Amino acid sequence: MTQVHHHALSGVIEFTPPKSGDHRGFFSEVFKQSVLDAEGVETRWVQDNQSFSAQPGTVRGLHLQAPPFAQAKLIRVLRGAIYDVAVDIRRGSPTYGQWIGVELSAEKWNQLLVPAGYAHGFMTLVPDCEILYKVSAKYAPDHEMAIRWNDPDLGITWPEIGVEPILSGKDAVATPFAEFNTPFFYQG
Ligand SMILES: Cc1cn([C@H]2C[C@H](O)[C@@H](COP(=O)(O)OP(=O)(O)O[C@H]3O[C@@H](C)C(=O)[C@@H](O)[C@H]3O)O2)c(=O)[nH]c1=O
């Protein structure tokens, strides 16, 4: 049975599918719609994204796409380990501006569901991290938004791994949280 853990922020769910090993290697049902259905996740996945980061301390995020291209994401790690973060950016939410961080790794075999209405980002913890994630809306560059990963107003406790963070040019100049005009509104 897939282990399911609902995190403190609503809709953020961690899934750990079972893995059966034998003398050949292993087998695992890494995505199973019925497992998500059982948790009330009504999401249609339209795209799979894969990224590779060679250096530990690589930070990607915090990213989101605005409606009508808002994306839920289901994230897992094929190789290596990351600290994966979701920030509630739904205006009016009782947990607006709160974040959650979960270590995802190939070893743990866990996955994180980050619903639409959250900003998402991660830091790689080891060299050569390969990430695969499903998204529920197509890539829409005109609707992309980014919030500064280390914004003091968010106060995300990123892991101390003793290296300088590596960011894209875009992420290095991302919007401070105080200036971020969220396109999401809490629906209750
Ligand atoms: C996200 C994305 C990027 N691209 C292109 C644009 C660019 O040329 C190249 C790299 O894009 P980025 O620098 O935005 O990639 P990256 O910084 O890895 O962006 C990703 O970060 C994580 C944290 C997320 O949550 C994702 O949704 C996505 O925003 O890939 C696509 O073609 N399709 C896509 O869906």
TrEMBL record:
EC annotation from Swiss-Prot or TrEMBL: 5.1.3.13
Catalysed conversion reaction: dTDP-4-dehydro-6-deoxy-alpha-D-glucose = dTDP-4-dehydro-beta-L-rhamnose
One Gene Ontology cellular component annotation held by this UniProt entry: cytosol
Active site positions: H63 (proton acceptor), Y133 (proton donor)
Keyword Phosphoprotein tagged: no
Biological process per Gene Ontology, one example term: polysaccharide biosynthetic process
UniProt GO molecular function: dTDP-4-dehydrorhamnose 3,5-epimerase activity
Domain of life: Bacteria
Keywords: Isomerase
Pathway the protein acts in: Carbohydrate biosynthesis; dTDP-L-rhamnose biosynthesis
Site (Participates in a stacking interaction with the thymidine ring of dTDP-4-oxo-6-deoxyglucose): Y139
PANTHER family: DTDP-6-DEOXY-D-GLUCOSE-3,5 EPIMERASE, THYMIDINE DIPHOSPHO-4-KETO-RHAMNOSE 3,5-EPIMERASE
Family: Belongs to the dTDP-4-dehydrorhamnose 3,5-epimerase family.
Subunit comment: Homodimer.
Name of this chain's protein: dTDP-4-dehydrorhamnose 3,5-epimerase
Organism of derivation: Sphingomonas pokkalii
